[in-house]
């Protein structure tokens, strides 16, 4: 299967999308925060992202889902900063503390090519939302230099529909991590009381674009939607509500990874009900619930 962005590059659509995306930086509304700051002029919004891309690390990742990792790993690029404000963030040194290095568009393109040369099965953009224009521009350069592996958009799910529409015909695999159902909880834990509303719409748009997961003959993902759900203690993540939404408004055929690796990091002690890890009982009950509701493509830890 030919990656979507290659055709968009050939027919000139990628160039048009780059222009559209960069226009958005003049009054930034890439994500639902709608900060309206002029990032081209150096203004900083909620996410703290500057104009140039900032990357904390990149490498072949073997800790992702097996359908992404394969034999040679997922070519993961960790972008610094985030549009959410999760008080329990597992990568808080990157998302909140801003650990990373400003790089050029050419550097970002070279990273993609480097990961492909290492044999990675895909390019996995982690927390990419606030750098979509820069990613697209770097992708153009990388495609000119023979990049051809699938692209993974690895996100919190807190997305602006208009940004996702720009990514149509570019991204092969969407992988949102859906976290909260209750607006009260998402406000308390991530300073985003509209998280469910925005993420629900985003998931539906992602599914419209890429559909259910498609694997190649080696069992590696080439296209489609992978839903991650990070379990939180005491049902703070609202799993039943999310599964009901997915069943009724997306598809039971969706690929679902229920993650039980939550740990109380960063400022999690501020909320006593999430100041512990997930129990094995909570995790097994979550898997059983998904099965009972009819989901068949369920990935467990390390699967």
Explain what you see.
This protein has 303 residues and is an alpha/beta fold. It has 11 helices and 10 strands. It has helices at 4-10, 13-24, 66-69, 92-95, 105-117, 132-144, 161-167, 183-190, 195-210, 239-250, 280-292, and strands at residues 54-61, 74-79, 101-102, 123-126, 151-155, 173-178, 214-215, 221-230, 255-259, 298-299. Strands 1, 2, 3, 4, 5, 6, 7, 8, 9 and 10 form a 10-stranded mixed sheet that branches. Helix 6 (132-144) links the parallel strand 4 and strand 5 (151-155). The mean pLDDT is 96.
Q: Percent helix among the residues?
A: 25-40%
Structural class: alpha/beta
Mean pLDDT: 96
Shape: globular
Question: Based on DSSP secondary structure assignment, what is the total number of beta strands?
Answer: 10
CATH topology-level fold name: TIM Barrel
Runs in which pLDDT lies below 50 for 5 or more consecutive residues are none
CATH class: Alpha Beta
Q: Tell me which CATH architecture applies here.
A: Alpha-Beta Barrel
């Amino acid at each position: 299967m030919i990656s979507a962005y290659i055709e968009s590059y050939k027919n000139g659509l990628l160039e048009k999308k780059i222009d559209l995306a960069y226009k958005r930086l003049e009054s930034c509304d890439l994500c639902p925060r709608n900060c309206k700051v002029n990032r081209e002029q150096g203004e900083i919004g909620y996410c703290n992202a500057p104009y140039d891309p900032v990357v904390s690390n990149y490498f072949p990742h073997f800790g992702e889902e097996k359908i992404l990792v394969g034999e040679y790993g997922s070519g993961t690029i960790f972008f610094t900063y985030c549009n959410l404000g999760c008080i329990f963030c597992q990568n808080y040194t990157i998302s909140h503390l801003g650990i990373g290095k400003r790089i050029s568009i050419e550097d970002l393109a070279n990273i993609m090519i480097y990961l492909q040369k290492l044999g990675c099965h895909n390019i996995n953009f982690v927390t990419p939302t606030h750098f979509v224009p820069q990613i697209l521009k770097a992708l153009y350069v990388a495609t000119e230099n023979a990049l051809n592996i699938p692209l993974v958009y690895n996100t919190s799910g807190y997305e602006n529909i208009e940004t996702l529409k720009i990514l149509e015909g570019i991204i092969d695999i969407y992988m949102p991590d859906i976290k909260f159902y209750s607006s009260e909880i998402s406000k308390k834990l991530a300073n985003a009381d509209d998280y469910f509303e925005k993420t629900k719409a985003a998931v539906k748009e992602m599914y419209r674009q890429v559909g259910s997961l498609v694997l190649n003959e080696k069992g590696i993902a080439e296209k489609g939607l992978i839903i991650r759900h990070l379990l939180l203690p005491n049902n703070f993540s609202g799993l039943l509500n999310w599964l009901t939404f997915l069943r009724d408004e997306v598809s039971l055929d969706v690929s679902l990874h229920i993650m039980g690796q939550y740990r109380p990091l960063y400022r999690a002690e501020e909320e006593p009900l999430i100041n512990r890890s997930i129990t094995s009982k909570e995790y097994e009950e979550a898997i059983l619930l998904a099965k009972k509701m009819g989901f068949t493509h369920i990935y467990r830890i390390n699967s």
